[in-house]
Amino acid sequence: MSNEPTSADLTVHDGEHALPERFEDPGLGPHVARVGDTDPAAAKRSERQVVAMFGLSVLGTVGFLVAYFVVPADGTVEGVRLSNLLLGLGLFLAMFSIGIAAVHWAKTLMSDHERVEARHPQRSDAATREAAVAVLQEGAKDSGIGRRGVLKGAVVSAVALAPLSIAVPLIGEVGGDWNVSKFRHTVWTKGRKLARDPNGTPIKASEVTVGSVFHVIPEGLEEEEHWIEEKAKAVVLMVRLDPAVLKEAPERKDWSYEGIVAYSKICTHVGCPVALYEQQTHHLLCPCHQSTFDMADGAKVVFGPANRALPQLPITVDDEGYLVAQSDFHEPIGPSYWERLK
Amino acid sequence: MSPRATTGARAAGGTADYLDQRTGIGLAVKSFARKIFPDHWSFLLGEIALYSFVVLLITGVFLTLFFVPSMGVVTYDGPLATMRGQEMSEAFASTLHLSFEVTGGLLMRQIHHWAALLFMASIITHMMRVFFTGAFRTPREVNWLVGFVLMILGLAAGFTGYSLPDDVLSGNGLRITDGVVKSIPIIGSYLSYFIFGGEFPGEHIIPRLFTVHILLVPALILALVGLHLFFVVLHKHTQYPGPGRTDRNVVGYPLFPVYVAKAGGFFFVVFGVLALMGATMTINPVWNYGPYDPSPVSAGAQPDWYMLFLEGALRLMPGQGTEWVIGGFTLSLNVLVPAVVVPGLLFTALALYPFIEAFATGDKREHHVLDRPRNAPVRTASGVAILTAFFVLILAGSNDLLATHFDLAINDITNVFRALLFVAPVVAFWATKRIALGLQRKDRELVLHGHETGRIVRFAHGEYVEVHKPLDDYERWLRVQHEPRRPIEILPAEDERGVRRKGYRRDLLRQRVSRFFYEDRVEPVTPRELAAAHSHGAHDSLPTEGSAPAQIGSDGAHRGPDDEPETTDSTRIDVVHG
Amino acid sequence: MKAIAARRHHRFAPAVLLALALLLTGAVYAALAPSAASAAAPSESDIEAGEALFQANCATCHGPSAEGRDGVPSLIGVGAAAVDFQVSTGRMPMQMNGPQAMAKPPQLDEEQTRQLAAYVASLAPGPAIPTAEQVDTTDADPANGMAVFRTNCAMCHGAIGKGGALSEGKFAPDLSGSTPTQVYEAMLTGPQSMPVFNEANLSPEDKRDVIAFLEEQQAGSPGGTDLGAVGPVAEGLWVWVVGIGLLIGLSVWIGAKSS
Questions:
Q1: What is the pLDDT of residue B439?
Q2: Whether A280 and C221 lie within 8 Å, measured CB to CB
Q3: Is there a single domain that holds both residue C114 and residue C146?
Q4: Smallest Cβ distance to B532: which of A10, A88, A100?
Q5: H or E element that contains B452
């Protein structure tokens, strides 16, 4: 603010005391005429341009119709792409040209003299306000709502309660059976075979080599009544780890089989399938929010927004060498919810 | 006049007469047809939103005729080799059918989805325009709220539509929604059942989303768009500051014919651009994602851009130690904070901003002339800070793509964004405020000293100065028209009798807010200051006759026919009087 | 195959197999290699040439007898498929250390790669290079391929194999430039971060179907340009650049006064 005058700078000369506090609005500037306003040839040219644009739009529509009949969507990628492109370009020409024509018309041929319209305050004037209040008061007095207390109560309760007849059945029915304890259980039971996702064939322990990853569903999942809900809870990711790197809690020693561990595939953060297994680091990464779990160390969280380790599915093998569950998960799978530990 | 034209005119007259007799429409035509609207490109941003919505309705009707909102399982037997024989919901199968076998179906689907993205993008841009120009001030606070609700409804419309094809990508989006809903204390599990009609995913969610998407939300949007526009007509449009523009008038062009042509034409322009995008750019290729199945997920699992900030917030939140168990009940702060608290704060701040600013200024007058963003430095800086936070979250939501496209480690990106989320908005606020104040000083400078002409003159006593050309009245007005805003003064805590006054604490808070807004300020030049500057530095403006300076050099670019004759001195000097 | 694959990860396997390999070299390989008849059986001279190449290009890191050392994997038992994959994609010999070995133009020609693979395969049995028949997709089912890909591959490589991020700067590469043989080899051997999908996990038919699914992607997208096929982020970026960008440009034109 080096240029701001100090009081010493204010060398007062004649008439300065009369200066107003603020500048005056100079009012609308002079109107600048367009070429078309003065040159009829230019106006004619603009008109021709507008007409040409409308003409182009007609061509676009015709092109669209031709494309529709000549290049139908035939189900192949190439055919659909061509059909989509031609129809789209036709539509683009048809629409865009109308727009450009109309705007060009408005800009070059319609009057460009600025007009001024007065505004009025939104607030009603005092008399109107008074009259409005008077009308309301009179109406209220006439209805007697102020004096008849019981009537007031009756109106309010009737109107307030009536919507319940819609709300109660709606809320009652919309949540199915409201049995939220279903979150706790999956279809895994003792002896249920682990099968490949998606084809459902059972897996032998010998097939699971170190470094490989199996996406697992319970065998016979399709026969479940609510198979998709059950699948949403029961999916499991299974790997075999080198016994040298596998760290197991003492109480879970017998939950794995010869280094084969199985964990719920549903993230404990918000429930994405955590499926991104890096075999060298044995880390499991969720592609949704990048929670990272260490498969060699109880699927504990090593990075990201998840807080809890993935639940482990205790497994073993049956007589034929197929991998089977020992039981259900020992805790609810998936994201946390209020009554999870209740 | 030809007989044909006469017939046409007569027919038009007859129709008008018929209508007016039954509706009295003449009055409406008389008052609306020549209504004045100010012209500015930024006033068209809201129109982009409106027109994308119209395009959404048109293409949406087309899509409803082919889409089957059912989760019933069917086996695909259509032409797509990568899907043949696969089990999928009818919703997904009908999406494939309308994309590959209905001529024009894919175009309508792509235009519809592009229009949805454009709808949200233009709403945000329009909101930014309204915010940064102070268009939300009295009497338009209510309309700001209407617009805000429209934005939320836009999010709802987008989200419900995105999930309809029942593909893997949107299905995982629903699963994340389910996880977020479950984290809500006490009612979370029940809310999840409420939404899905039982356990996730169930067989109800697609039909329910369909009803919300094609009936509830569009009806609400339509009603609120009507209200939004009604308010625009009622309040008359705001206008940018300039000569002749005041709070008591509106300067512009008449609705009919100029705006009918311009705004009507712009609808076709928007439709055309969307058609071009639908024709050439693939959007939401559900045939790549496949039918929903709770087991798979693909890399690049992200929502549409307007939900990306939520995704980013979820990704940034550290998980360790943020899940609390209180009395046996689980409180998942790692989900609640990013998915509920952060957007809650962001949106509440946005919705309430007009009221916060009104509280700070204590200003109850009507404002119809917009602010130049530089003239409201704290508001502009606050807006930029909110946008910066929003942008950091969007980038965080794209961190896996940043990692692959810029060869970075996802963990590093996440850690950097965790810090940036807090640092960047503060820096942005500070920098924007400084820039705004700087621009205001530049305005003052210009008003006081005029334009630089590039002409350097030397006085007889040896001083060099650059000649400045004073601003004309119109140029100057733009830079001095705004009112200086100062922090409010409040009454002391105690009155003259030493009694503590009621409402002092409220006033004190108000003063603090007001100081935050207006303590640092640059006030517009007053006539007195200009006069003083002229008398003090008169030689800046023009060489005065008394001290006839020898011009010794001039900037060639600015030389005009009026320039002084060639200099005799060979030295060129570029010193600017300062 | 399966049994050996499982056993080769036993702690003593390298030593035992090394001894075996020294005794049985060519014969064991020929006996175990699937459809050995169609693959030209490597000759003794190939193995010798391969050994020379190995000593020149690989031994610095992997050790003179391919036993590996800290942070560098042993190549005993990785099989010809792993060598062919790593060398033909240019990942090996590695240029510099980084989060992962990067694909680059191959440094050895096809003949040299075959010889090197023959040498490494001669050290101990491992997965062989898939035959032309194994990667032939004439009768394959791309729909099954897509289902398999979606469950087993898409989380890293993206819905149609355009790649994606892993942790700590690693990434799953774009598959569109890979040959069917390389795709097959990668599934079979699990290079670097990638898990192994042995023939018991994904059957040879499943692998062939996956390749068929990837081949389907060469037709491109029916909707126009695919915007990188990386999902909604790219779409969001383009709606701002093209949609809002173009429309603001046009708005400025509409709002500007005509000359």
A1: 96
A2: no
A3: no
A4: A10
A5: strand B451-458
CB contact under 8 A, C247 and B407: no
Q: What is the ipTM of this complex?
A: 0.92
CB within 8 Å: A111 and B317: no
Judged by CB atoms closer than 8 Å, whether chains meet at A211 and C257 is answered as no
Domains and their CATH numbers in chain B: 46-292+301-371 (1.20.810.10), 450-474+530-578 (no CATH)
pLDDT tens per residue across span B262-315 = 999 999 999 999 999 999 999 999 999 999 999 999 988 899 999 999 999 999
Q: How many CB pairs under 8 A join A and B?
A: 377
**B492 cis-preceded (ω within 30 degrees of 0):** no
Please tell me the pTM assigned to this model: 0.90
Residue type at B274 in one-letter notation = L
Q: Name the residue among C30, C48, C255, A310 with its Cα closest to residue B39.
A: C255
Residue ranges of the domains in chain A? 35-114+127-172, 181-325
CA C37 – CA A287 distance, rounded (Å): 43
Contact B93, B76 (CB under 8 A): yes
SS3 breakdown of chain A: % helix, strand, coil, rounded to 5? 40, 15, 45
Determine, for residues C167 and A303 on separate chains, whether the beta-carbon distance falls below 8 Å.
yes
Nearest residue on chain B to C209, judged by CA atoms? B82
Choose one of C95, C123, C151: the last residue of a domain. C123
Domain span holding position C93: 44-123
User: Residues B283, B110: contact at Cβ < 8 Å?
Assistant: yes
Q: Out of B43, B279, B298, whose CB is closest to C159?
A: B298
pLDDT tens track for A123-157: 999 999 999 999 999 999 998 888 888 999 999 99
In angstroms, the CA B274 to CA B557 distance is 44
Task: Give the one of C147, C164, C259 whose C-beta lies nearest to A35's C-beta.
Answer: C259
CA gap B380, B485 in Å, rounded: 15
Query: B406 and chain C: CB distance < 8 Å anywhere?
Result: no
Alpha carbon B107 to its chain's center: 28
> Which chain C positions have a beta carbon within 8 Å of B101's beta carbon?
none
Same domain, C118 and C150: no
Query: How many domains does chain C fold into?
Result: 2
| CATH classification at residue C211 | 1.10.760.10
For residue B36, the distance in angstroms to the closest alpha carbon of chain C comes to 15
In this structure, is the dihedral angle defined by the CA atoms of residues B124, B129, B134 and B140, taken in order, positive or negative?
Answer: negative
Comparing CB atoms, the residue among B41, B122, B289 nearest residue C254 is B41
Subunits with at least 3 CB pairs below 8 A relative to chain A? B, C
- Tell me whether C101 touches chain B (CB under 8 Å): no
Residue C247 in any domain: the answer is no
**DSSP assignment of A171-193:** HHHHTTT--GGGGG--S--TTPB
Using CA atoms, how far residue B43 sits from A246, B40, B117, B149, C187, in Å, is: 64, 6, 20, 20, 56
Contacting residues of A for B105, CB less than 8 Å apart? 73
Instruction: Indicate whether C100 and C61 sit together in one domain.
Output: yes
The per-residue pLDDT for range C172-223, each reduced to its tens digit, is 999 998 999 999 999 999 998 999 999 999 999 999 999 999 999 999 999 9
pLDDT reported for residue A70: 96
Tokens of B194: 């409420």
Ramachandran angles phi, psi of B531, nearest 5°: -60, -40
C3–A209 CB contact, under 8 Å: no
Query: Are residue C157 and residue C111 in the same domain, yes or no?
Result: no
CB within 8 Å of chain C, chain A residues 266-285: 273, 275-281, 283, 285
Q: Which of A255, A303, A315 is nearest to A278 (CA)?
A: A303
Average pLDDT over residues A100-113: 94
Q: Is B72 on the interface with A (CB under 8 A)?
A: no
Name which CATH class applies to A181-325.
Answer: mainly beta
